[in-house]
Each structure stands twice: as C-alpha cells, then as structure tokens.
C-alpha cells in the first residue's frame, strides 16, 4: 500500500494546490477531509488552474468521522504532523500505507483528532517561532517517509534537455 497525505479541513486553496501537485509528482494519493474552506470539487480545482489534477488520486471524505472509519477499515496507520509534543519525524519509523495527516492552516486539528492518531510527529523548529507552512511540512515529512519506505518514484531515464 502506498503512503498517503491527508488534509484536515484545509482552508487555503493555494496550499492545497501545492500539496496536490506534490502528491501527483510523488505518486502519492491525497485525502481531503471536509468541510474545507473553499470548494474542493474537480471542477473547482480545474477552474483554479490545477493542471496536475489528472495525475493525482484524490479521495474526498465528508467528515473526520467518515475518514477515520475508512482508514481504520483499510488498516491504515494515522501519523499526525503536529507542532505539539511529538516524536521528531526523522526518528519515527514510517511504514507503507501510513496516512500522514496535516492540520488546517488556521487551527491545526482538534484534541479528538490528536488523540485518535496512532503517532504524532514534529519537525523540530526554533522555539520562538510558531509553525511551518503546511505545504512545506507536507514535503519534508513525506520526503522522509518515502526515503524510509523506498517509495520514491523510479528515476526517469536520462533524455534530451
Ligand atoms: C500552519 S500549521 C497550523 C498552525 C496552527 N495554528 C496550530 O496551532 O496547529 C498547519 C499544519 O502544518 C503542519 N505543521 C506546521 N509546522 C509543523 C511542524 N513544525 N511540525 C509538524 N507539523 C507542522 C501541521 O500539520 C499543522 O497543523
């Protein structure tokens, strides 16, 4: 099973677009947990010029409860990226099939979601700063998870520039 990136009620469309492009390029499915702060239909993404849309497998979930039941049914571990009290992401052993969950830009995730996660990972930062941008966090953690699980797409053959 591939790794997955899940977005909890995203509220900034540009960040979601950046993360979906990351998913497309890495061959990683994306989960969008609604409600989002903007329309998340294929039509809305196309209207916003999301040109990688056909290259990413997106699952939309109507609620947190539905997503949580769905991922448990698949035996999918939930790894929450959070600034609050967690294992440094480079010390965590990722496994194929893990869903890496990113919190909403404005408020992270509620306590119930924090507690439901199987693991919580943090990107260590200087203590006097609040948080990283969500798309930067997604790229750093997904990169480490792909490295550990041998999940990067195969290198394209060399061709003319
Ligand atoms: C802009 S941050 C949310 C900030 C929010 N005010 C909070 O208190 O969680 C959006 C998401 O990016 C991820 N994130 C940002 N910085 C992170 C860090 N240093 N370690 C792990 N995840 C981080 C988390 O998933 C977070 O919920």
From TrEMBL:
Catalytic activity of the protein: 5-carboxymethylaminomethyluridine(34) in tRNA(Leu) + S-adenosyl-L-methionine = 5-carboxymethylaminomethyl-2'-O-methyluridine(34) in tRNA(Leu) + S-adenosyl-L-homocysteine + H(+); cytidine(34) in tRNA + S-adenosyl-L-methionine = 2'-O-methylcytidine(34) in tRNA + S-adenosyl-L-homocysteine + H(+)
CDD domains xref list: SpoU-like_TrmL (cd18094)
Residues reported to bind S-adenosyl-L-methionine: 103, 123, 131
tRNA/rRNA methyltransferase SpoU type domain residues: 3-142
Molecular function (Gene Ontology), one example: tRNA (5-carboxymethylaminomethyluridine(34)-2'-O)-methyltransferase activity
Subcellular location field: Cytoplasm
Ranges in coiled-coil conformation: none
Predominant location category: cytoplasm
InterPro entries in the cross-refs: Alpha/beta_knot_MTases (IPR029028), SpoU_MeTrfase (IPR001537), TrmL (IPR016914), tRNA_m1G_MTases_N (IPR029026)
Self-association and partners: Homodimer.
Family of this protein: Belongs to the class IV-like SAM-binding methyltransferase superfamily. RNA methyltransferase TrmH family. TrmL subfamily.
Protein name (record): tRNA (cytidine(34)-2'-O)-methyltransferase
Gene: trmL
């Amino acid at each position: 099973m591939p790794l997955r990136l899940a977005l909890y009620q995203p509220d900034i469309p540009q960040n979601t677009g950046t993360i979906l492009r990351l998913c497309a390029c890495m061959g990683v499915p994306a989960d969008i947990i609604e409600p989002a702060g903007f329309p998340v239909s294929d039509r809305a993404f196309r209207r916003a010029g999301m040109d990688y849309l056909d290259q990413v497998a997106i699952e939309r979930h109507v609620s947190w409860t539905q997503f949580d039941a769905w991922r448990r049914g698949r035996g999918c571990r939930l790894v929450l990226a959070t600034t609050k009290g967690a294992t440094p992401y480079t010390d965590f052993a990722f496994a194929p099939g893990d869903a890496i969950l990113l919190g909403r830009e404005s408020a992270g995730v509620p306590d119930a979601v924090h507690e439901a996660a199987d693991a919580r990972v943090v990107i260590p930062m200087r203590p006097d700063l609040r948080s990283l941008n969500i798309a930067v966090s997604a790229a750093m953690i997904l990169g480490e998870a792909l490295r550990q699980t041998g999940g990067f797409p195969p290198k394209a053959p060399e061709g003319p520039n």
